[in-house]
Amino acid sequence: MEAPVLVIVGVVLAVGGIWSARLVLVCAGAGAAWLVADAFGASLGTSALVAAASGLLALLVGVLASRVLFFVVGLVGGTSLHHPRHR
Fold it and tell me: Count of alpha carbons within 13 Å of 73, Cβ hemisphere only?
């Protein structure tokens, strides 16, 4: 990637606020996919398309994983707090 692109990504992450964790997922997925596409000799358009699709996929997987984690932690915590031994 070019240096101005990295500067823009840094500025977007800096001002992202609460969305910065999700932006990190998108940027990490897109960056990794861009490097892989570039290693296979893909054109600029193809690399950008692969990066965009992978960034969205990384966001989806990250959000899904966090929701499952919150569910499991809530389930374990709720089950252990309502166990008859703790009453």
Answer: 6
Q: Which DSSP symbol is given to 82? A: T
Residue type at 50 in one-letter notation: V
Residues 6+ apart with CB under 8 A from 46: 37
| Helices and strands per DSSP (H, E), number in the chain | 3, 0
Separation CA 73–CA 17 (nearest Å):
25
Q: For the segment 26-54, what is each residue's pLDDT rounded down to a tens digit? A: 888 998 999 899 999 999 999 999 999 99
How many Å apart are CA 38 and CA 11, to the nearest integer?
A: 24
